[in-house]
Design brief:
By secondary structure, this protein is α/β, with parallel strands linked by helices. The chain folds into two domains: about 10-175, Spore Coat Polysaccharide Biosynthesis Protein SpsA, Chain A, CATH 3.90.550; about 175-255, no CATH class. The protein is about 40% helix and about 20% strand. The protein has a seven-stranded mixed sheet with strand order 3-2-1-4-9-6-12, with helices on both faces. Strands 5-13-7-8 form a four-stranded mixed sheet. The radius of gyration is 20 Å and the shape is globular.
């Protein structure tokens, strides 16, 4: 029996995603020819769940910037096309059908931006600059890769890219406790970036990061981009999005002045 080369490889980096992974993999079960999972040695059932879906699993360290592990998954993929997902994302049925047509049609662009619908505290965020949250996730094998420098970065694709209209669903904050854990990790990465810039501590930087940046971000998301339409979740999202600048600055300040603490 001659094995044909897979058309689509779904690639993920995971760490303790047992609650999310089944929903994600169910959404691509009839779409993916190959599933690649690079796991940061999860303490839950993530690996066993991935294997139940027939995924090829590689164990490695759980790095602060998980895009490094995503690149490892990309390197393992054999498909003509790659669909890079997070475990808390779900491919909607309309998106699945569109991807199926793309990978079966010769020619065309080398990558596609997918509109992502983010769920926050149980509600989809339709305003506040959060939709459509385009993310570059579908591309030809060998054409795309992640820079692995920032947690919010996009893949870099060589060649023509286009935009799709079918949603990728993102359930990244099922509860506020989970959101605070992510917020803590993101602000630590942002504090590290301030260190790379060798930001000077002083009145100007303090006013900028503790007051001006948080206020500007909140007003932009909540008023200019109409985050108020999404109710209380819209307010919470705008507030903590602005607060991340102050939290990161305080972490950076503490590391510089009290490195042993």
């Amino acid at each position: 029996m001659i094995k044909t080369k897979p058309r689509l490889s779904v690639v993920l980096a995971t760490f303790n995603e047992a609650k999310n992974l089944p929903r994600c993999l169910d959404s691509v079960a009839n779409l993916a020819d190959e599933i690649i999972v690079v796991d940061g040695r999860s303490a839950d059932q993530t690996v066993s769940i991935a294997k139940k879906y027939g995924a090829k699993v590689k164990l490695t360290d759980n790095r602060p910037n998980f895009h490094i592990n995503k690149n490892l998954a990309i390197d393992m993929a054999k498909g003509d096309w790659l669909l890079q997902l997070d475990a808390d994302e779900v491919v909607s049925k309309p998106l699945s059908e569109r991807i199926r047509k793309i990978i079966r049609t010769p020619g065309g662009p080398d990558g596609y931006w997918l509109p992502r619908l983010n769920y926050f505290l149980g509600r989809p965020l339709t305003k506040g600059g959060q939709y459509p949250d385009y993310t570059l996730r579908l591309y030809r094998n060998g054409a795309g890769r992640l820079p692995a420098k920032d947690v919010h970065e996009q893949a870099v694709v060589k060649g023509e890219v286009a935009y799709l209209s079918e949603d990728l669903l993102h359930f990244n904050t099922p509860d506020f406790e989970n959101y605070l854990l992510r917020h803590n990790r993101y602000t630590s990465l942002l504090a590290g970036q301030l260190g790379e810039k060798h930001l000077s501590l002083g009145l100007a930087s303090a006013v900028n990061y503790l007051f001006w940046q948080p206020v500007k971000e909140f007003f932009s998301l909540y008023f200019r981009h109409r985050g108020y339409v999404d109710g209380f979740p819209g307010f919470v999202f705008a507030f903590f999005s602005g607060l991340r600048f102050a939290v990161a600055y305080i972490k950076y300040w503490q590391k510089i002045l009290y490195p042993a603490v």
